[in-house]
From TrEMBL:
Coiled-coil region list: none
Keyword check for Secreted: no
Subcellular location: Cell membrane; Membrane
Transmembrane segments annotated in the record for this chain: 12-31, 82-104, 110-131, 170-200, 212-232, 239-259, 271-288
Membrane topology: Multi-pass membrane protein
A Pfam family of this chain: TauE
Protein name: Probable membrane transporter protein
Main localization, broad class: membrane
PANTHER family according to UniProt: MEMBRANE TRANSPORTER PROTEIN MJ0441-RELATED (PTHR43701), MEMBRANE TRANSPORTER PROTEIN YTNM-RELATED (PTHR43701:SF12)
Length: 304
């Protein structure tokens, strides 16, 4: 069943897009990530322009994240206070990211910038997650091995503006969650990702948050950050395709519910290993598309 996308100016298979939305929603619920790191490349793979993929994907993340948060909220796995501090940073970062996005779009470099950003960030984060998850699984099989300290205190823990977050049992500088949220906001605007693939590891290793609260709190912040990104992209850069967003939204909401249930069956190290493999796989596919020789070496352009 073909549907026409007015902003992207192309036709797509509606069932294919619904399935893609369901897959991303499943990952969102399972891992606590927005899933945009996968959806934006998938849309680009089927021919949707990169700028439209980024702008529209942010809208789909809102629905998928709400669905995932509701499931985590019922289990009491959301730290609202810490999520609110991250959200403040996320809104500021989103505004900065949309501004940068507009500059790149006017320069005609937005497609290359998005692809390179994905290759670099996904390759780096995915590789680190694979290494850490592998080490954790090895340590699990060697219980007699000496264990390092659970909490390493560095200069980050000496930052000012300390706040207490009772739900997570943390007493840390508010600048840490604000900064993490800021980076996530920039990523939402420029790459169309919720930033969960970066936020989740940062919340675990930089903030030392309990793992059980990370997914729900991350999705809580992603809801509002992606909503702000959608409004700003639509008003500033006109890159949000409502028809495409609707299809992705329906699939994402359904998939998130199943993903949340599936996530409870995996240990933390198993989940990180699986997510790391997915992230690295997407990065390799994008890198190949950047260097591979296209099937059609020539194109026709009509001058004005």
């Amino acid at each position: 069943m073909q549907v026409y996308l007015p902003i992207a100016e192309m036709s797509v298979n509606a069932l294919l897009v619904l399935g893609m939305g369901g897959l991303v929603g499943f990952l969102s619920g399972m891992f606590g990530v927005g899933g945009g790191f996968l959806m934006t490349p998938l849309l680009m793979f089927i021919g949707v322009p990169a700028a439209v993929s980024v702008g529209t994907q942010a809208n789909q993340l809102v629905g998928a994240s709400i669905s995932g948060v509701m499931a985590h909220w019922r289990r009491g796995n959301v730290d609202v206070k810490l999520g609110a501090v991250m959200l403040m940073g996320g809104v500021v970062g989103t505004a900065v990211g949309v501004w940068i996005f507009g500059i790149l779009q006017r320069m005609g470099q937005i497609d290359v910038a998005i692809s390179l950003s994905y290759v670099f960030l996904l390759g780096t984060i995915g590789g680190l997650m694979l290494v850490e998850a592998t080490r954790a699984m090895i340590r699990r099989r060697q219980p007699t091995a000496a264990r390092g300290k659970l909490h390493r205190h560095g200069f980050l823990h000496g930052l000012p503006l300390k706040m207490r977050f009772p739900r997570s049992r943390l007493y840390i500088s508010a600048l840490l969650p604000f900064g993490i949220g800021f980076v996530g906001g920039v990523l939402v605007a420029i790459m169309g990702v919720g930033g969960g693939f970066l936020l989740v590891p940062a919340m675990i290793y930089m903030l030392n948050m309990p793992t059980a609260l990370v997914a729900g709190t991350s999705l809580f912040q992603i809801i509002f950050t992606t909503a702000a990104a959608t409004l700003l992209q639509a008003a500033t850069n006109q890159t949000v395709d409502v028809m495409l967003a609707l299809l992705l939204l329906v699939g994402g909401v359904v998939g998130a519910q199943f993903g949340t249930k599936a996530g409870g069956a995996l240990r933390g190290d198993q989940a990180r290993l699986l997510l790391g493999l997915i992230v690295v796989g997407v990065a390799l596919k994008l890198a190949w598309d950047l260097v591979a020789v296209p099937a059609d070496l020539y194109s026709l352009a009509i001058g004005s």
